[in-house]
Prior knowledge:
By secondary structure, the protein is of the alpha+beta class. It has one domain (21-45, 54-112). 26% of the residues lie in helices and 20% in strands. It has helices at 13-18, 25-36, 67-77, and strands at residues 40-43, 60-64, 84-87, 91-94, 97-98, 109-112. The protein has a 6-stranded antiparallel sheet with strand order 1-2-6-3-4-5. It binds zinc ion. Zinc ion is lined by residues 49, 55, 60, 62, 110.
Amino acid sequence: MTKPANDFETISDDLLAQTHGGFSSQLNSAMHRAQELGLRITATTNGKHAAHSYHYQGRAADVAGAPGAMRQFYREMSKTNPTELFYDPMGGMKHGRNIGAIGGHGTHVHVAY
Ligand SMILES: [Zn+2]
């Protein structure tokens, strides 16, 4: 049975942003690249993060794995004008500018757009 076209539920933009399909193409390609490098996505909208974290808006991902792969991921993402990019051994970026390591990101790379 097919449903009539007017029977679709509409989802608010807020809710949509929290679904996987709501991730920006930049964040999606970052996560795709992380997986190519053998890294795991350890958090998107789930997990515990700082208040007002981009995670809760579906704009951030944490990735973890071999340190060499995390360094490579950081190097590549640093060229994509990320809103946030944190990996303490390499430094940190906000809005595409280097701000240095912020702490608390020694075991995973945080990226947000
Ligand atoms: Zn994070």
